[in-house]
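quick q for whoever's on today - can somebody do inverse folding on this one?? i tried earlier but teh output was garbage lol. tokens:
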């Protein structure tokens, strides 16, 4: 049995229509060509708190979203090439109150985040403002760039 070219043309037309539908389906997705994949990646489901890591000339800066936590509820520790964030959000109703709805569940968390380089553990600072924990880890002195003088002989 011979198949005419028209049958193939209809098949390709169908493939083309499917391709256009897929292209249209993903038109909403933002396209970022300059960002490395680890920047564009979202935290895996279940990881809490969400953390951003940035690097300045002198330090690494970790910012974690910890809404509803007081400074006494968060513990920051630097150990063996990692930053460890621990904390607990308690959500008990005040005395004399009756709970009718609880959508903000209590949570205990511990995240161990790798450090991108060597840090000065003695100079680490942590601040908590507006539900954002900011941990600044100064780079170790030997990790900082050093200008070497060139001498003529």
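ok took a stab at it. sequence:
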């Amino acid at each position: 049995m011979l198949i005419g070219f028209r049958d193939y043309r209809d098949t390709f037309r169908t493939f083309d229509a499917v391709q256009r539908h897929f292209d249209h389906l993903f038109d909403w997705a933002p396209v970022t060509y300059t960002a490395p994949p680890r920047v564009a990646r979202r935290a895996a489901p279940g990881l809490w708190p969400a953390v951003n890591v940035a690097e300045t000339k002198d330090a690494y800066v970790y910012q974690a979203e910890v809404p509803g936590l007081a400074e006494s509820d968060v513990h920051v520790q630097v150990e063996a090439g990692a930053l460890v964030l621990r904390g607990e959000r308690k959500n008990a109703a005040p005395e004399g109150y009756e709970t009718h709805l609880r959508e903000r569940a209590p949570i205990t968390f511990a995240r161990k985040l790798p450090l991108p380089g060597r840090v000065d553990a003695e100079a680490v600072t942590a601040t908590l403002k507006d539900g954002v924990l900011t941990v600044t880890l100064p780079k170790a002195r030997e990790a900082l760039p050093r200008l070497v003088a060139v001498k003529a002989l």
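fwiw The beta strands are 51-55, 59-65, 74-79, 82-89, 107-114, 125-129, 132-138. also Helices lie at 5-25, 37-40. so keep that in mind when u check it
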